[in-house]
User: Fold these one by one.
Assistant:
Number 1:
Amino acid sequence: MVRPRYFFSETFISLRRNFFMGFTAITTVAITLFVVGFFTIIVYDIQGIISSVESEVELAVYLEDEISEELKDYIEKEVLSWEETDSVNYVSKDQALERFREQNEGSDILKEIEGNPLPASFEITLSSPEKIDQVALRFYDKDGNYIEGVNDVIYGKNYVNKLFSITAIVGTIALLIIIVLLLAAIVLIFNTIRLSIYARRKEIEVMKLVGATNWFVRVPFLFEGFFEGFVGSVISIILLYFVGNFLLIRGERVIVDTMRIKELAIVGSSGVVLYVYIGVAVLGGLIGILSSAIALRRYVKI
Amino acid sequence: MNMIEFKQVSKIYEDNTVALKNINLEIKKGEFLFLVGPSGSGKSTFIKLLIKEIEETEGSIFIAGRNICNLKSNRIPQLRRNIGCVFQDFKLLPNKTIFENVAFTLEVIGKPVYEIKIQVPQVLKLVGIFSKINSYPHQLSGGEQQRVSIARAFVNRPPILLADEPTGNLDPGTSEGIMKILSRINLIGTTVLMATHDRNIVNSMRRRVVELEEGEIIRDQKRGVYGD
């Protein structure tokens, strides 16, 4: 009962007959999926940028000048034992001064420094930067004062929090855009198939009259939907590969230059792009078949 | 043996029109039956019930002894493969050739290509339209198109052939040719049920006549005529 030749020829006859509708559907899928794919890669890239920024976020714990060696060692050990801790770097008073001199070379401010006013500190980097607030709190006691030996705790609190909320907002917006675009694609393919069914209603009537099973009537339309979705997705992959990559690499260059970030998940170098391509192809085919199925449910009551 | 049997069948449409009222009818295998009556008397409803295009409101319908009322929807195609249908408006597909139109029936039920290539020319010869095998429907006259439509209904050799006003659009001479074909198909053993209000045809054929009026059988006559 499986007649692939029949189904294929029926599919292509129908595609030829409804060329412009099919063309519209394919174009819509191509553009939609291109934008969806492009957004996905951008979101991924932004995440990459953010995580490389995040990894540079550190907590500076300034110590009192008269801290004992034992207390200092105790704090270091304690910090190292936390699971959020990635590394701890002790900066002595001398090293701090040295660094300050390097950073302000040639400046008048150096002349005004007498002795060493700079405190010693621990520079702590975290393996989970979003927990920076919690970690910072551990340097305070119950009453909100610094624990013994600690003079000050500094980290870009607002900066870090802003970063996290931007990530969330960008992600949500991108998701919304993706959903809206996908819906648009579904509606358009749905309409194409519906018109194609309408154009062939006589044929369907005859098919049912001579005893065609429901599946026999449906399969050519499902093929048509799949074909339109799949071809659309292939076109969008080609667009992503040439146009998308070009735009992204340009954009990244700008970001890298302005933000002075050392390393980035550069497009094309990561496996993500491949996953996006595969996802786009699968999505295209699925949208096609799904829209056809919905259109058939409504218009081919058997 | 009864090929078709109606037992107390009624059909009331959703708008409360009573199309058929308590119909009891037995049609034997190999019989040729005219269903006559004015427009709106229930002839088309009768035929639609047989191919389960609509559901009866009450009663039971048996085909070859099987009750088709509680047939599951996925068994309906199987039922329709055993009933050929011919209509007043032919219902041919304009973009397919005569061969393809007739082959369509066989393709739909999954017959292999070599069988289709044998059976289609055979049935086209039976209805006398073989010479037009590669033409398109619009190149044919009304009578020729109806022959093609009969060929399509019969190519699968169903035991039952339903014809709903098959001569409704044709002139008397052409109608006569169509009736000859239906008679021939009946002679092979097919049960033929033809709804018509073509008085001349009914009178010249002298077959069983069942007359409907407002959804009721008011006459059932062997070797009958159209009536007043």
Number 2:
Amino acid sequence: MATRTFSIGGVHPKDAKISRGCAIEPLPLPPTVYISMSQHIGAPAKPLVAVGDKVKVGQPVAEPGGFVSAFIHSSVSGTVKSIGPRKDLAGNPQTCIEIAVEGDEWMEGIDTSDTLVTTIDDDNKAVLEKIRLAGVVGLGGATFPTHVKLSPPPGKTCEMLIINGCECEPYLTSDFRTLLEKGEQVVVGAAILKQVLHVDKAVIGIEDNKPEAIKHVRSIIKEFQKISSKYAGISVMPLMKKYPEGGEKQLIDAVMHRQVRSGGLPIDVGAVVQNVATALAVYDAVQKNKPIVDNSVTVTGECFPKQANLLVRVGTPLQYIIDYLGGVPADAVKVISGGPMMGKAIANLDAATVKGTSALLFLRADQTVRGQESQCIRCGRCADACPMGLEPFLLNKLAKNADMEQLEANAIQDCIECGCCLYSCPANIPLLDRIRIAKGQVLGIIRARNAKK
Amino acid sequence: MSKLLVSPSPHIHADVSTKSLMRDVVIALMPAVIASVVFYGWGELLVLGVSVASCVLLEYLITRYLLKKTSTVGDFSAVVTGLLLAMNLPATTPWWVVLIGAAFAIGVAKLTFGGLGQNVFNPAIAGRVFLLVSFPTYMTHWEVPQGLFGVDAISGATPLGIIKEGLMQGGSVPELMAQHGLSYTQMLYANLGGSAGEVCALALVAGFLYLLARRVVKPWITLSIVCTVAILTTAFSLADPTRFTGPAFNLLSGGMLLGACFMATDYVTSPMSNLGGIIFGIGIGLLTVIIRYFGAYPEGMSFAILIMNATVPLLNRWFHQKKFGRA
């Protein structure tokens, strides 16, 4: 089977999906949750509750703080204990609502049953409003508010919806488990998204290291297409396993053979990309009136004794999850939120999960400690690996010299920070570290210049 | 665990290092090294031993005591330079000439410029060319291989030398080939006068295939050299078969394969982009053919590579990777 993939660069890290056999199981409720107001890209949400208020599961506790922002709901029932700054996983203070858990009482109108609802409402406006009110954000990593992405700017039309089921980061298996266990819901979610975007085609892209998921979702689509015409045009596209296949621009290139221009948006080439977990959240929001109150988190690592995929309520302290599975292993030196290529190293285990938390990964020293930096041998491996066609060795040199003009001319602003350059450098040069900092400076210069115009 | 390690992504690294890449090159050279010792005998082993030992020792002494830096010997690059230098020398080269070559390669061509990654010219070729112009008698005193346990070696000229000499004396290519019993199949397996690296085409190609399979090098530079030489020599030999040798002869003789597979593909002294590499290879092929056909030297590979080494900064400036979404 000749499978498609993106056209430039990429690397092949060992996929290490050691938790792929772990079914998603619900984590027992923690005694307290801390719900952050900054769980999405854009303006922080504004609290709607006060200290002492009683809340139920699914009750809105914060409203959008701007156009690009999202609703946030209580993930538990109980009493609001405090509203104020609390350190996130990097140690930066974020406004959080602390809720002491009492029982598990859900808001009226939320359908908590497992019954599958395949009939889709024709009223797109109402559907979109439901998605907005449910606080759905992109769960593939960027946490961009979904309702904004579903409203293309005037003059732009969407030709294809792409559901991102690549999960190209090593170790992560929550999307894979979701496809296996909630494939029906994901397909309904895809059909809803397809209808809202007025497109005929939806493609679910899955890497070929997950053949079970490809087969399973294909059979579901076949069944559903017999029931309703709303499922016409949905298909599965197997993609060659290569990192970063799930990068938005790379995925569009792989599926449609179209490259989003530098600085452009997917909609410029007629594409909208949504993650598998987001499609599930859309299903929950539209078919079950259920806002985002929980999400699947992979807890994994070779040094971690118990691999797991857990359904975790938003705002659960990380330490609580880890303790439930037996605590931090003695030989782990680093805990990562997300995958090993783009995830963030956690500085503070007292931090709580957010909607976009996808994994907790434990790594030993021999797996993660970087080697001593040595001289560049000009092998060009970084440039071969870069999926954006950049030349990290050159950007590194220009960044050291702080040559902002040349950095911009050599497209540093296109960097997607996937980490392929640093991953493949034989001399252990901290390419991405320097490029990331210089990219921030160049983007600042570009913004200031555009503001002047 | 008391403290968490916090650092920016990515958190994992490919199983590759400068050392592992250089070690792969050493492994890839082994078939040719073994073949050359078998064909040329113990003299060849001495040249190899002196060359590698002096390259490694000199790199250690210079980095450690002259430049007062951490020694870079551990990265195996001095071993690669030592092997390549030895494979460019006749098996009869006296040990002190080898030592001088190694001193030039490591001391001047490599470390004066700042060491691995900073040198403009390929150290092994620079060392060889330095010896070629300084000690021409030793450097053109080739040996007809007699094998490890064979009779005494007879000295003679290389196939390229025979043809060059013969043509200058008014002979024609087919006559000279027949007269000296040169055949292509023989050239493929060895048994011709030359330096170690010229002796066995099959062993060199096997090593190069290993490098390709391990993704240590890309094929573009090598392919563009080979294709350029093949096309040019085909055209010339068809035009005048009495004056110009053909493609098979040129590809299998002299340092062509050693140069195309192991010297021109040196990371440091070749262009970064694929397109730059192809232009670089065309340049090497073109210059080699011109020198072989019209120059004073029978062999042009070393000079061609050195000249093209000097163009690499320009090629890197002109040719870049294809960027995503900027067509």
